[in-house]
Amino acid sequence: MKVTIIGGGVAGIQTALALKGLGHDPVIIEKEDTLGGKLRGWHRLFPVMTPARDVLEPMLKQLRDQQIEVMASTEVQAIESDGVVTSRGKVESRATVVCSGFDLFDATLKEEYGYGIYDNVITSADLEQMMNNGKIALADGTQPHRIAFLHCVGSRDEKVQQRHCSKVCCVTGVKQAIEMRRWFPHSEIYNFYMDIRMFGPGYEEMYRSAQQEHGIQFIRGRISEAAPVKGGKVQIKAEDTLVGRPLKMTVDMLVLLIGMTAGCSNSRWTECTGLSQSDSHFMRPLDMFEGNVRSELPNVFYAGTVTSPKTIGESLNEANAAAMRVAAYLETL
Amino acid sequence: MNFNSSFALPFSVGVMVLFVVITYKYVRWLYRLPDGDKRQIGRNLFSRQTWKAVWECVTESLLHRRIFRVNPVLGYMHMSLAFGWFLLIATGFVETVAYMGWTPVPLRGHVFFKYYSREAVHTEMWQMVFTNVMDALLLFVLSGVALAWTKRVYSKMLGMRRTTRHVWGDRVALTALWCIFPARLLAESTTSAIWHNGGFLTGWVGSLLADAMSPETLVAMESVVWWVYSFALGIFFCAMPFSRYMHIFTEVPLIFLRRWGIKSDDRPKSFDHFQLEACSRCGICIDPCQLQRDAGINTVQGVYFLRDRRYNMLSAEVADNCLMCGRCSERCPVGVDINSLRLNSRYTFHNSPSFRRYDYLRGVDTSQGEGKVGYFAGCMTLLSPRILQAMERIFEAADEQVWWADRNGGVCCGRPLKLTGEVDAAREMMRHNTQLFQKYEITTLVTSCPICLKVFREDYNLQDIEVLHHSEYIQRLLAEGRLKVTPTAEAYTYHDPCELGRGCGIYDEPRAVVKSVATLLEPSETRNMALCCGSSIANTAIPDGAQLKIARSLGQSLEATGADGVVTACPLCKKAVRRGTTLPVYDLAEIVADNLTTRH
């Protein structure tokens, strides 16, 4: 039976693969012209530096092999009880899985860090892109000597209406710091954090090795502001809260570890279906346990970061779980 | 005429109490004024200001012109009570003189003249005129009382969404006040029923009474109703100096003192009493308050703050929970300077003189550059580097030599501390910055932060340095042709920052600058009634969620203009407005710098 899947990121692809395996007929509707979502922009994945390609490519190949229908460059405008309305007309289906994911936090909202204003202030996503392109350099093409990472940009920050923890940025910051050490063995690398949350398998070990083997400095304290100094460098002001002193540091490159914000399409889902959003605007699953991939509607399901920040692995798990739930639901029809 | 009657006793006692208490209060407050204020009064006593004050007393205390402008029905209600009652007293006095000539008549003789003159002959034409004029005035006042009753029951009918919740003393006085005029009508009508001395109103009500009752009942009733009337007056006069009705008299000295240049300060002083007790608790300040209308905070508005402070039950919570946006003062019919009073209440709660705390300020100088024009970014501009960058480009385009006071981090202007009541600490910052500005001998000081601007203009003594907001400075550059911009097809709406608009009276310059690059669209509430962004540094008690609600409500009103973007002229507003709208938000300097005409 036909199932629409909104979003062709890892969660959407895996949901489609799993549903196909269960004998159903999934169709992926993706607003971009290619599948893969945010994962396409990533270079390597924590905690074991798996190339993002190695995760995505086999999934895409399976999708092609199994001839799963994909509607690219198509935007879903509304979810209805018998399918979805898209920019290319109505797609009828018996169930819908919402895998519309998250948005990256817009770092220009933290104007004090100068993203988009100073040349050498970049985001973690920009850095991944640089690594994918094979060249990490300052705006003038030279190599950075002193690099600072700032954690929690757009996470746990009331002032930009992001109270939630984005979960993956801590370990991303550690991962990227280690990668930078490999690119620039003689550089100085600092991570400014308020808490380091190493929740997954191998994460804590990675954090330890970042300090012990890679000589990365971790300073507890958020950066309050960045200012330009001569030569394209950036001066940052922070407080080292363990020592209890303010500090100023001039760095060549400032990397903002941007968080995950709720997808901008979430309000559309809420408007057309009556589904609800949590305080952080992520979609609210039926419950946090047994119904974590179900919605308040019997024929609408969730997988991946549409409901909260998640790692790639967690999104894949949810995709499988959602497929099982959909299959069980279709049985009852 | 015989003016001896026992029923006048409550009235006479009330008048005595009123006179003694009010005299005691005013003499005490005036005596305790600081010497500077007393000298100021001495200088201005025989000046045009005194005449202006007399005129203001007529237009405001009696006619209530300011309320009329905001809400005509409410204006009529207040005017009929104040001006109507005043005319009743004045006309009653003239009437007594007309009857009696210039013989000394006790006060009760004037007030209860209808009773005392009941046995006199009332056949002359002028007597009939007096009787009917007095009836007309009574009707005028009664119409106000009727509106006041309606307002209590159904405030929306009078254009007020919310009215004041009153204290116990107010309720006594209010009840007495509401009884005074109906009681007077009844008393005079009863007398008229017996003696036929009424006008069109009291005569008519009197004839109705005469039809309904026997003459014996009327006589018995007459002795009762005049007692009731006298009691209502007596109770009202006794309660008055302790209730909100103290405003009736206090507004008059307040108007004079204000005209003579006396102001409330950042520390409490005796003049504050005049302001506090001139508040009539009309509640007009409640509706404009965004804390009330967007965030559901209902205990901190001007009327409640003034009430709490007057009765010594002010909490720091109430004093601190205010954006100090000044929208309430714009509407206040008495013109109470609520913000200054709130500031000096905060001083009482929070000022902690600890001068060694700021020892580290000594010698701090991170300024750079040379020029007669100084630029003070302020902390919020430093946190909004786009504005700083835009100013840099503007200075460059205008070929201005600039001394940068604080771009590498400077000392705070002092206003945030002042707003929390830490006046002594704020003075330390002000002293430091003043010395810095003087050391570099600048002639013009430009700032892009209205918060800094206000404190530079109000609290700094910068003598020969002209202080300009960047909106004024840019407008001047454009007017002089030192800066050229290319107009765009964009339509922007302009958000008035509180500290710039209501705070410093700067409304036109930023608008002129916006118009030089784009079409300007005005939101429905604008200029002196512009909404606050909600993130005011003056409020240290408000939770972030409430700030956000205010920002969103502002965002909606800005979006309703249909503009492509929002322009504001305050770095703090810029940050706050961005939280409440999906429209792009720019500082004035940014739209100018982005559209500079490049010179060939």
What does this structure look like?
The complex is a heterodimer of chains A (333) and B (600). Chain A is α/β, with parallel strands linked by helices. Chain A has 2 domains: 170 residues, FAD/NAD(P)-binding domain; 154 residues, FAD/NAD(P)-binding domain (3-Layer(bba) Sandwich). Helix content of chain A is 27%, strand content 28%. Chain A is built from 7 helices and 20 strands. Chain A is elongated, with a radius of gyration of 21 Å. Chain B has 600 residues and is mostly helical. Chain B has 4 domains: 243 residues, no CATH class; 88 residues, no CATH class; 120 residues, Rossmann fold (3-Layer(aba) Sandwich), CATH 3.40.50; 110 residues, Rossmann fold (3-Layer(aba) Sandwich). Chain B is built from 29 helices and 8 strands. In chain B, strands 2-1-3-4 form a 4-stranded parallel beta sheet. Chain B has a 4-stranded parallel beta sheet with strand order 6-5-7-8. In chain B, helix 9 packs across helix 10. The mean pLDDT of chain B is 93. The interface between A and B is medium-sized, with 15 and 14 residues.
Work out the largest interface and the residue count of each chain: A-B, 15 and 14 residues
Number of spatially distinct domains of chain B:
4
Uncertain residue ranges of chain B: none
What is the number of helices of chain B? 29
**Considering DSSP H and I runs of 4 or more, what fraction of the residues of chain B is helical?**
55-70%
From the structure provided, what is the oligomeric state, counting identical versus distinct chains?
heterodimer
Average predicted confidence as pLDDT of chain A: 96
Cα shape of chain A: elongated
Q: CATH homologous superfamily name of the largest domain in chain A?
A: FAD/NAD(P)-binding domain
Gap between N and C termini of chain A:
10 Å
Instruction: Report the radius of gyration of chain A as a whole number of Å.
Output: 21 Å
- Named at the architecture level, the CATH assignment of the largest domain in chain A is 3-Layer(bba) Sandwich
Number of helices of chain A: 7
The biggest sheet of chain A amounts to: 5 strands, parallel
CATH class wording of the largest domain in chain A: Alpha Beta
Estimated helix fraction of chain A: 25-40%
The structure class of chain A reads alpha/beta
Portion in strands of chain A: 25-35%
